[in-house]
């Protein structure tokens, strides 16, 4: 089913939609709306400027912009010019932003203003908004571009966590996105009257699965500030106020929304980014259409999807069956298919496979291997995920075959966090893992062995050190100092023997009035601690961004 998907470069497909529904709303942002015709005209003007700055096929353009209409204009403009965009969250630590800009080697960097961002040598600085005047607003012809658009050309590059200690850029072509969009439009019932919330950070590929199913169906994309998207009352209010009909969220967000009364039953809910707990699926699937979707960046966001989940039944929700024109294999160590019910490593193939990793041919060859079961010359992607087939033809996610984890919807290579920690002069060894010492509360925890036993590093200082080069979701909520790591008989790290983190604060200062007493009680309840003082740091006691929203609620 779905093999007849129209595959064309994304700008071509977008321009065809503009021709069909020029006056329809393409973007909802705050109290304002932007029509398809207006969005297209702005992107065309900026695209002509980018072509003049040397942007063409295989050119990389970095977009260091916050969530906004400007970001969407810039994204479209790069595609129209024939280049590939790299979304860079300006809220990332400066070190990480600079690494991404140097590694991507962009021809141009699009920014919101003239300040703050250090542009790599040889790259053009382009200020979005100010740069669009003086250029024609009609669609670009191939004659105006440096070369003809093609579906095999790079469309975007998304940086994901890397096990070697540095992020890696995944290069995705124009071929897979139309298939993803067509599948989702049909599967989720997206129509011209739909409104899809753009929840995921544009620096993550999940944003692609919000944007293109909306635009290729003539629907509206709802864009909001990071503050409006904070899980809890702010997010619930945004969904209701903006008339959102479809939303994709990590399962960890749902219990926070539950405390605020949940989402309207009319909203189609897609959960993705991490395993969905059975009890969460059972509660949230009641009275609404809810699907569980799975997929890595290396296969254009989504690869499998469940049928609508059944509410009220507590069972492990499947990750479903392959999307249109996608193949999934569960294989053993010899690349042989395993029987139904037996676990194996999940491999993916089909039109949505990425081209590989930017400037990393060795890693690309290691993860994208020959597909022995598909047409000649086809590749398959080794996901590192462990899965099994159910008797009904659905896939069930079991876990990981390596040290990659999914936490609150974010993909984290534990090796990258460990590499940063061991870069600290006071740290000789580091081990990082996800602990769930309270049901439903997963926390990234680090264990370190000092390089000098007489000079103990400060755990809070180590957390701040990690935060200088890694985004917030990769900063451990606790750092424990050990004299030595516990080892197995085979002299390997015994992860099960690592101690439970101690989040108890050092000195305690009691609340001085009823308000402080109430706040300390709330913090203690959310963090699972008996006593919290007025000088204690929420984050040093094991708090993270999602727990912070529970405090606010």
Please characterize this protein's 3D structure.
With 553 residues, this protein is of the alpha/beta class. It has 14 helices and 26 strands. 26% of the residues lie in helices and 24% in strands. The protein has a five-stranded mixed β-sheet, with no helix packed on it. Strands 16, 17, 19, 20 and 21 form a five-stranded antiparallel β-sheet that branches. Helix 5 packs across helix 6. The chain is globular. The mean pLDDT is 91.
Explain the layout of strands and helices.
Layout: H1 10-20, E1 25-29, E2 32-35, H2 36-52, E3 60-64, H3 69-81, E4 84-87, H4 94-104, E5 108-111, E6 124-127, E7 154-160, E8 168-173, H5 176-188, E9 195-197, H6 206-215, E10 220-223, H7 233-242, E11 246-249, H8 254-258, E12 268-271, H9 278-284, E13 290-294, E14 304-305, E15 321-322, E16 326-331, E17 344-350, E18 356-357, H10 361-367, E19 368-370, E20 379-389, E21 395-400, E22 404-407, E23 410-413, H11 414-422, E24 427-438, E25 441-450, H12 459-467, E26 478-481, H13 514-527, H14 545-552
Parallel strand pairs: 1-10, 3-4, 3-5, 5-6, 9-10, 11-12, 12-13, 25-26
Antiparallel strand pairs: 1-2, 7-8, 8-18, 13-14, 14-15, 16-17, 17-20, 19-20, 20-21, 22-23, 24-25
């Amino acid at each position: 089913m779905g093999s007849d998907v129209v595959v064309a470069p994304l700008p071509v497909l977008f321009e065809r939609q503009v021709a069909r529904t020029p006056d329809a709303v393409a973007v909802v942002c705050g109290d304002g709306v932007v029509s398809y015709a207006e969005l297209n005209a702005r992107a065309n003007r900026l695209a002509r400027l980018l072509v003049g700055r040397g942007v063409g096929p295989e050119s990389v353009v970095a977009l260091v912009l916050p969530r906004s209409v400007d970001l969407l204009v810039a994204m479209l403009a790069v595609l129209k010019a024939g280049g590939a965009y790299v979304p860079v969250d300006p809220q990332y630590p400066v070190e990480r932003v600079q690494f991404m800009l140097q590694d991507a080697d962009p021809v141009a960097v699009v920014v919101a203003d003239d300040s703050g961002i250090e542009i790599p040598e040889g790259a053009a600085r382009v200020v979005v908004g100010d740069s669009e005047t003086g250029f024609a607003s009609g669609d670009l012809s191939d004659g105006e571009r440096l070369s003809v658009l093609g579906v095999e050309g790079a469309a975007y590059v998304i940086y994901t966590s890397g096990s070697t200690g540095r992020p890696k850029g995944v290069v995705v072509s124009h071929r897979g996105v139309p298939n993803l969009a067509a599948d989702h439009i049909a599967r989720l019932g997206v129509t011209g009257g739909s409104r899809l919330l753009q929840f995921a950070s544009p620096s993550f590929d999940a944003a692609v699965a919000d944007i293109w199913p909306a635009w290729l169906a003539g629907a509206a994309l709802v864009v909001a500030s990071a503050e409006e998207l904070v899980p809890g009352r702010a997010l619930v209010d945004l969904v209701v106020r903006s008339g959102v009909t479809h939303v994709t969220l990590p399962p960890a967000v749902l219990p926070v929304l539950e405390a605020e009364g949940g989402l309207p039953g009319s909203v189609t809910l897609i959960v993705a980014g991490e395993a969905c707990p059975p009890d969460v699926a059972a509660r949230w699937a009641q009275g609404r259409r809810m699907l569980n979707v799975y997929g890595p960046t290396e296969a254009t966001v989504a690869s499998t999807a469940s049928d609508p989940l059944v509410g009220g039944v507590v069972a492990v929700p499947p990750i479903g069956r392959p999307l249109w024109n996608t193949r999934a294999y569960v294989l053993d160590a010899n690349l042989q298919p395993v029987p139904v019910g037996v676990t194996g490593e999940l491999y993916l193939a089909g039109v949505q496979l990425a081209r590989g990793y930017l400037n990393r041919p060795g890693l690309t060859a290691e993860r994208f291997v020959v597909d022995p079961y598909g047409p000649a010359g086809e590749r398959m992607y080794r996901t590192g995920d462990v899965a099994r087939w159910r008797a009904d033809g659905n896939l069930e996610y079991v876990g990981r075959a390596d040290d990659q984890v999914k936490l609150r919807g974010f993909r984290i290579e534990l090796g990258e966090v460990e590499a940063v920690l061991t870069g600290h002069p006071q740290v000789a060894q580091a081990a990082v893992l996800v602990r769930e010492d309270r049901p439903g509360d997963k926390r990234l925890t680090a264990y370190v062995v000092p390089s000098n036993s007489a000079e103990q590093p400060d755990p809070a200082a180590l957390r701040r050190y990690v935060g200088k080069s890694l985004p917030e979701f990769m900063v451990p909520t606790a750092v424990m100092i050990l004299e030595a790591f516990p080892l197995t008989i085979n002299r390997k790290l015994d992860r099960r023997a690592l101690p439970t983190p101690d989040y108890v604060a050092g000195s305690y200062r009691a609340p001085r009035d009823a308000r402080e007493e109430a706040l300390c009680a709330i913090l203690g309840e959310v963090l699972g601690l008996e006593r919290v003082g007025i000088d204690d740091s929420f984050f040093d006691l094991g708090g993270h961004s999602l727990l912070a929203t529970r405090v606010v609620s």
